[in-house]
Each structure stands twice: as structure tokens, then as C-alpha cells.
Amino acid sequence: VQVQKFIERYNSKKELKINVFTQLMATRSPSAKLSNEHVRALNMIDLAFYGKIRKGHPKRTSSEQDVLNLWKEYFAHLSSSCPDNETGSTIWNQTSHNLFLNLLSSMAKDIGYDFDRVHLQNAIYSPIAHGDLEKDQFKIRKGLAAILAGEQTMKVELTSSANEDKNQ
């Protein structure tokens, strides 16, 4: 019975790691990194790769510790402000991308997948229309927020209809 429970705990822990990794792989394209699924998976890393608890203390494998260390580094970067200028923004985004790839690569190794960084970076299907839709939604949100906050005005033009012209 104890062996069966050990196997169940091991499988449960591995399944959680795989689920987190799967979500991050599925949402690794730039247009999906703001999705709820991506953010939720990132927030589950600490739990999934925590290790075993022995006598009230975590007991981690070196690969689990590597994942947690890379997650802390990536999280610190995500918590920093992205510069407003184009050069700074480009550098910040590139650093973010590299840290995320390091994290994914480390997670893959811990789980037992053989994905190299090139595969993790390039084997992404993301239709151009998704990126265009994301940009359009961002513009609409920003514009509407500016109008509602009174920071921007909306041009309204009144024209007469064909019926009004006949009645006059």
C-alpha cells in the first residue's frame, strides 16, 4: 500500500510539472504571453518544482533547483519596468525572451524532454492574424481608456440623412 501511495505521489508531482510546462509551451508565442493561461502557469512554477518536503524542509533535485533559480531571475526581470524608449524596450524584450527560453529549457530537462533552445524558440505556430488582432485590441483599449479618463476627445460629425433633406 505504501509503495502504491509513493507511486501516486510521484506521478501526481510529475503530472503537475508536465501541466505547467505544457501550458507554457502552448502559450510561448509573443502574442500569447499575456494570456491568463500563461500567467497562471508561471505562477504555478514555485509549487510544481518545489521538491519533496522532508521533516518540514524542501528536498530538491539539482534540476528542480535550476528551474526555481531561473524562474526567480525571469520573475525579477518581469517585475522590472520596461523602458519607454524603443531601444530600451527592444533590449528589455530580448532579455525577457532569453530568460524565458532558459526557463523552458531547464523545465524540459527536469521533466525528461529533449528539447533544445532552437526548437523551443523556433517551433512556434502563431498566425500573423493573432498578432494583428492583439495590436488592434490594444489600440482600442488604450484609446477607449484615454477617452473615458478625459485625456482624449472623440470627434463626432453630424450629417443629415436623406429623409431629413426631403423634409426641408
Describe this structure in words.
The mean pLDDT is 87. The protein is mostly helical and 168 residues long. A two-stranded antiparallel ribbon has the order 1-2. The chain is built from seven helices and two strands, in the order ααββααααα.
Please supply descriptive tags for the structure shown above:
2 strands; two-stranded antiparallel sheet; mainly alpha; single chain; 68% helix; 7 helices; 168 residues
Condensed summary:
α1 runs antiparallel to α2 and α1 runs antiparallel to α4. The protein contains seven helices and two strands, in the order ααββααααα.
Strand order of the largest sheet: 1-2
Low-confidence stretches: none
The outline comes out as elongated
Number of helices: 7
Largest sheet: 2 strands, antiparallel
From the N-terminal CA to the C-terminal CA, the straight-line distance is 92 Å
Topology:
Blueprint: H1 2-26, H2 36-48, E1 52-54, E2 57-59, H3 62-79, H4 86-111, H5 117-122, H6 128-148, H7 162-167
Antiparallel strand pairs: 1-2
